[in-house]
Every structure is written in C-alpha cells, then in structure tokens.
Amino acid sequence: MDDETRNIIASAYKRTESILLQHRHMLEKIAEELLLKETLNYHDMKALVGSPPHGQKQLIEPLQFEAEINEQAGIAPGRSQQQSPPLPED
C-alpha cells in the first residue's frame, strides 16, 4: 500500500513538473504581472495567457450562484442555509 501511494504521488509530481515546465513562459508572465498588481482576476488572466483550453468561463453573479446551490440542496427560494426553520405555532 505504501509503495502504491508513493508511486501515485511520484507520478503526479512528475506530471505537474512537466506541465509547469511546458508552460513556464506563461507562469513568468503571470509572476511579472503579480509583482505589479496584487491580485489577478479572470479577465487579467485571459489577457495574459489566452482563453481557457476547455471553453469560456461562464461568469455568474453571487446571488445567482447562491440560488443555484440552494436549489440543488432543496432549500426553498428566499431562504438561506443559515436561517432556522420556523417554529411551530402553539
């Protein structure tokens, strides 16, 4: 079991290193821009390295995201996860 785990980790490390070396020029661009700006958003990244390889990112508003998550969790619209259910009336 330990050997199998070690092999999986070693393989993942080698693949990661290969990908980083393959795209080193992009990483250097990103690093240089981060020295100028503290954070980079999606549009900054797209300008630096191009569009994502798996298609455009779909940007959604935070309220839309929360509504979709609540719908998937079966929470009624207008309620949040932090709200307690209503108390039964006497």
Automatic annotation (TrEMBL):
User: Its domain of life?
Assistant: Eukaryota
State the UniProt keywords alphabetically: ATP-binding, Hydrolase, Metal-binding, Metalloprotease, Nucleotide-binding, Protease, Zinc
The Peptidase M41 domain sits at: 1-48
* GO BP: proteolysis
A Pfam match: Peptidase_M41
Cofactor(s) essential for the protein: Zn(2+)
Per UniProt, what is one GO molecular function of this protein? Answer: ATP-dependent peptidase activity
The protein, known as:
Peptidase M41 domain-containing protein
Species annotation: Daphnia pulex (Water flea)
